[in-house]
Amino acid sequence: MSQSAPIFAVILAAGKGTRMKSNRAKVLHTLCGVPMVNYVIEATRPLLPEGLFVVVGHQAGLVEAVLPQDAKPVLQEEQLGTGDAVRVALAALEGEEEGVLLVINGDGPLISDRTLGELVERHRSAGVGATVLVAELDDPSGLGRVVEEAGVVRIVEEREASESERANRLVNLGLYAFELPEIREAISGLSAENEQGELYLTDVLETIGRRSRAVTYRLKNPEEANLVNDRAQLARAEEILRRRILDAHMREGVTVRDPASTHIEASVQIGRDTVILPGSQLRGETRIGSDCVIGPSADLQDTLVGDGALVEHSVGRGAEVGNGASVGPYSFLRPGTVLEPGAKVGAYCEVKNTLVGRGSKVPHLSYVGDTEIGADANLGAGTITANFDGEAKHRTRIGDGAFTGVNTNLIAPVTVGEDAYTGAGSVISKDVPPGKLAVGAPARAIAESPQRRRKRAEHDEPARDGGLAR
Ligand code: UD1
Ligand code: CA
Fold first, then answer.
1. Where in the sequence is the domain holding 268, given as residue range(s)?
2. Shortest-distance ligand to the CA of residue 173
3. What is the pLDDT along the chain (470 residues), one digit of tens a residue?
4. What is the CA(359)–ligand 1 centre distance, in A?
5. 39 and which of 109, 118, 141, 165 could share a cystine (Cβ 3.0–4.6 Å)?
């Protein structure tokens, strides 16, 4: 058989995944932020398959939505078994006469491109009609048991296996290489005479074996045998992927102080000499520069962090933290927040849709929303923007070098000019011109306090000063 015969890959992803006990199709469950099916797809890439097909069925639309452009979805209307899924895929491959058909169950996210390559290699060099990936497991429960004899491979599903067959620990990992004409022929002869009333793909091996020999290929790296049928297995597989991601960052010069408590999704990038401290979680399109200290307990999603920045005990969602900027402890950067280089958002602040200019500081206990802060400004502790009037959001502008006293309330829309200064507790509802000091809205006693009124009513005392306290 020629080495150059094309490879077609079919990923089976139409099943519901009953044992997940989920409203979501099994292959959509994520590991380190990526849906299960996408790991399997990526593993086929280095083989340069001529065609990459994904059999979809249960929640087809949702599964199709996560597929890459070049993966062609093929609809299996009814989930009549793995054999039926391959039958549907073969219909999509009509006209292709020759080649290797790689069939991969969509629930083995740890399968590596290396293993796929070796399987195809083994298949080609043996010159057989079918090759199946197997492994000997300590706990084979739930999987099909494999018996190989003189060019024939027989797979018995656990539910149909006899006591002695169950004792066999050699299992089918749901990954096969077939000669295209052989699988076509064998699929058309499948019947659903089994416990499940399904078409079992595994039954084709015996047929093909008798016609043109079938062989097994033994998995080398046992980690890859972590198939996912339930949530405990999902967690086990994710743990392995999580460690792989951490190892890759560490090899590239990132210090991870406590790998056991650090969760970094596959898509995250981190520069060298950055230190990730315990309890941190980095997700989505988060990108972190070099020489940063992230954590402890940083929770960043889709957040960009420049070089030499610090993020301690804080949450970021769609925010940007510039070079040398610092955040935390205990602050929340919401979407649209941009900290320019050297800016600081300190303790217990919430910042939303706001630009904090170069070197400016929001050091303590503030809410700043829809605001533009110039360079080298300082917001006093407890400075709050009243950006929402109950109907619409309004913007606040704070000029370069401006200073707000503690507990300044900024009633938007409002501007505090360059080098302006607001007094402690001031309520700023009109623009403060550049270079001016604004104070005001001192509290006045206007009536008796409610608790005093209640106490008086309890003791049936008259109001002393007409209800007015001085
Ligand atoms: C299958 C194998 C079993 C093997 C195990 C490895 C068969 C009959 N049995 O069992 O020998 O040890 O995989 O994981 O194949 N799917 C479809 N359409 C369907 C049914 C399933 O696309 O009609 C997809 C599922 O989405 C899943 C894959 O095929 O990704 C495997 O299906 P699953 O039901 O998990 O098969 P197992 O019972 O685990
Ligand atoms: Ca399975």
1. 248-465
2. 1
3. 445 789 999 999 999 999 999 999 999 999 999 999 999 999 999 999 999 999 999 999 999 999 999 999 999 999 999 999 999 999 999 999 999 999 999 999 999 999 999 999 999 999 999 999 999 999 999 999 999 998 999 999 999 999 999 999 999 999 999 999 999 999 999 988 888 889 999 999 999 999 999 999 999 999 999 999 999 999 999 999 999 999 999 999 999 999 999 999 999 999 999 999 999 999 999 999 999 999 999 999 999 999 999 999 999 999 999 999 999 999 999 999 999 999 999 999 999 999 999 999 999 999 999 999 999 999 999 999 999 988 899 999 999 999 999 999 999 999 999 999 999 999 999 999 999 999 987 657 677 777 788 989 999 888 766 555 44
4. 58
5. 109
**Phi, psi of 262, deg, nearest 5:** -115, 125
CA of 443 to the centre of ligand 2 (A): 69
In a domain, 278, yes or no: yes
H helix or E strand, kind and range, residue 54: strand 51-56
Amino acid identity of residue 156, one-letter, is V
Kindly state the tokens that stand for 96.
Answer: 């292709």
CA atoms within 13 A on the CB side of 43: 28
> Which residue's alpha carbon is nearest to atom 30 within ligand 1?
106
The CATH number of residue 189's host domain is 3.90.550.10
Is pTM beyond 0.85 here?
yes
Q: Is residue 1 part of a domain?
A: no
Instruction: Quote the CA–CA distance of 185 and 79 in Å, as a whole number.
Output: 21
- Ligand 1 site residues (CB inside 6 A) read 12-15, 27, 55, 57, 76, 79-82, 84-85, 105-107, 143-144, 155, 157, 171-174, 200-202, 227, 229
Residue type, 177: A
Residues 267 and 198 in one domain: no
For strand 255-256 and strand 275-276, is the pairing parallel, antiparallel, or unpaired? Answer: parallel
Taking the CA of residue 199 as reference, the ligand 1 atom at the shortest distance is: 8
How many domains are contained in the chain? 2
Are residue 304 and residue 185 in the same domain, yes or no? no
User: Ligand 1 atom 19: the closest Cα is on which residue?
Assistant: 81
